[in-house]
Design brief:
Blueprint (H helix, E strand, L loop, with lengths): L1 H6 L7 H21 L1 H21 L15 H19 L2 H10 L1 H6 L5 H29 L7 H30 L2 H17 L12 H7 L3 H13 L5 H32 L1
């Protein structure tokens, strides 16, 4: 199998082939999602509950001195919920690879002329499309519930940019874990260990200015917090552009690192196939 797989790897990557294969493989995953719309709806239920329930339960916290800058708690919370949904969705993306391994689909891909880069990138594109659609739904519900975002259209576009970058980071990580562990139970366990601490060690739900100093220090190195900062600044009336673009740069750099990790994991899987 290794010899066959090695022979099928082209010596030079063709750009038209890469983009064509990426489009085909992305379409494959989108068609599978379209056949199970209930799954997409279920992914929205928890974030919407958090948005509406937390938005009411903790709406008085904005009155705490030093908490915010005149926003309602719902407006403060919405970017955090959007990024939370992107984080959880992308952290589970490796299950698609595991299913393909179990069904023999991955081996058929490896013995075919399928572009290897397209196999990785199509997963990132698919998850990003889902994350964007779900984010727009959450923003719409927040607006319906009374939130008003001064950042306007440009702010929403920048928030979606952070969603895509965050999705790419953790989708790459999830795919790498799936390729190395090859076990869905291990993937779920590792995802839970990573995502929950990242969520609570951020300002997604509570302003870190009111948290212990060590939480603030950890949050500064938390990629989930970087995305929350971008989203919150983008939707605010007076964004801190230096902070916004600085955190976009950090997310972009980490995306490159994690995509490289996923590529290395894919090569390791090929060698052992």
């Amino acid at each position: 199998m290794t010899a066959i797989a090695s022979q099928s790897i082209p010596a030079r990557i063709s750009a038209p082939t890469f983009f064509t294969h990426t489009a085909i493989l992305t379409g494959r995953q989108l068609r599978a999602a379209w056949r199970m719309p209930a799954f997409l709806v279920m992914n929205l239920i928890q974030p919407i509950i958090w948005l509406l329930l937390f938005g009411q339960l903790f709406k008085a916290v904005v009155q705490i001195p030093g908490f915010g800058n005149g926003q309602s708690y719902l407006e403060f919370l919405t970017p955090g919920i959007v990024m939370m949904m992107a984080l959880f969705g992308s952290a589970w993306s490796g299950t698609v690879y595991i299913q393909d391994m179990q069904r023999g689909v991955m081996d058929r891909f490896l013995t075919s002329p399928t572009n290897r880069g397209a196999l990785i990138v199509s997963s990132l594109v698919y998850q990003s499309i889902l994350a964007i659609c779900q984010s727009l739904v959450v923003i719409g519900i927040a607006f319906w519930a009374g939130a008003r975002f001064e950042g306007g259209f440009v702010g929403i576009v920048l928030l979606l940019l952070a969603v895509v970058l965050l999705t790419a980071v953790f989708c790459s990580l999830s795919n790498a874990v799936a390729l190395l562990a090859r076990d869905q139970t291990a993937l779920i366990g590792i995802s839970q260990i990573i995502t929950l601490p990242l969520m609570f060690l951020s300002s997604a739900i509570m302003n870190t200015k009111l948290s212990p100093e060590w939480v603030q220090n950890v949050a500064a190195y938390n990629p989930f917090e970087w995305a929350v900062v971008v989203g919150r600044e983008a939707l605010s009336a007076n964004p801190d552009w230096a902070s916004l673009w600085g955190h976009v740069g950090l997310l972009a750099a980490l995306t490159v690192v994690m995509a490289t990790l996923a590529t290395s994991a894919f090569r390791a899987y090929q060698r052992s196939a």
